[in-house]
Amino acid sequence: MAGDRDTLLSMGFDPSRVDWALRATSHRGLQPAMDHLLEHEGEPIPDASASGGSSLASEITSQSTPAMDVDGDDDDAEALRHLIGKKGPVSAAATAGDVEAKSIRCSMCGKTFKNTALANYHAEKSGHDQFEESTEEIKPLTEEERKAKLAELQQKLVAKRTVKAQEEAKEAKANEAIKRKQGKDLNKIKEELKAKEMIKEAEQKRKEKADDAKARAAIKAQIEADKKARAEKAAREKALREGKPIVDGQSESNNTTSSSAAVTPSSSGVTGKDFKDTRLQIRLASGGTPYTTTLPSDSTLHDVAEFVAAQTLLVSVDTVSFTQQFPRKTFSRTDFNKSLRELGLTPSAVLIAS
Description:
Structural class: alpha+beta
Number of helices: 9
Radius of gyration: 57 Å
Strand content: 5-15%
Distance between the termini: 105 Å
C-alpha cells in the first residue's frame, strides 16, 4: 500500500529496496516489509523484469495500487476525522477553512504522524484512540536520523529474536527435565519388577529343594522297605527249610509299634543288637500329625533328621534337636553321628523334634 511505502520511505530506506520488500511480502503490511529490509540489507536487488509474468504482475500491481491506496487513505482519513470529532479536541488551526492539515497528532501522547497509516499503526500498538489534525509539517529524516532509526529497528529485531531464542531454550530445558523424570520413573519400575522376579525365583528354588529332599527321603524309605521285605521272605524260606514255625513280620511289627510307647528298649526282653530295623514315631514340639518310619538300626540320628526335614519345612537338618520322654533324654549334636542301635532306640522309639 502507498501508506506502507511512504512510511518506509520516511524512515530513510531506498525506494527500490522498499518496492522489492513490498513485492516480496505480497503487500502484507508494514512489519513484514520492514523485516525483509533488515534481513536482506546489503544484498543485490533482483531484477523485477527477469520473467514476463513477474513484470506483468508488477505492472498490474503498480497500476492498481494507487487507486486502492487512495481509497484506503481516504477511508483511514475519514475514520480518523470521525475519531477526532468524537473524542479529541479540534485545534483552531484545524477548524480554519483556509489552513491545510499537514499531519496527525495523538492527543494522548503528543506524537505527530505524517499520514493516517502511521497513525493507525500507532493506535494498534499503543491502544491510543484520541487523535487530531495538525498543521505541523514533519520534516524528512536527515542521514544521521535515518541511520539512528535503522539502528534502533535492528536492535529491536535482535532483541525480539533473542527473547524468542530464550523462550525456545527454556521450553527445550523443561521438555528435557520431563523426559529425565519419565526415564527415572521407568527405571524405578524396572528395578521393582526385577526385585520381585528375584524373590519369586528364590522362593521357587527353595520349593524345588524341599521337593527334592522329600523325593530322596521317599526313595530311601522305599529302598529300606524293599530290603525289609526281602529279609522277611528269606527268613520265611529258611524257616520252611528248617521246619520252624513261620512268624508274620507285619504282625510282629504292629505288635512292636503298639508297645513302643509304653515299653522302653531297656525293659524289653530282647537285646537291641538283635533287631535289624528300628521303627520310629517322630512328633513335632509344635504339634500336628506325627510321622512314622522304619529305618535300619545302623542308621544314624542324622538320617532321622533328614527324614523329618523332608516331611515339613518347619524343620531344618542343621538346627533340629531330638528328645525322648521315657526315659527322659535329650540328644546332643554329637549323637547325630551315632546309630540308632548305639543310642538304644531299637527296636522302636518315640522322639520329639523341636
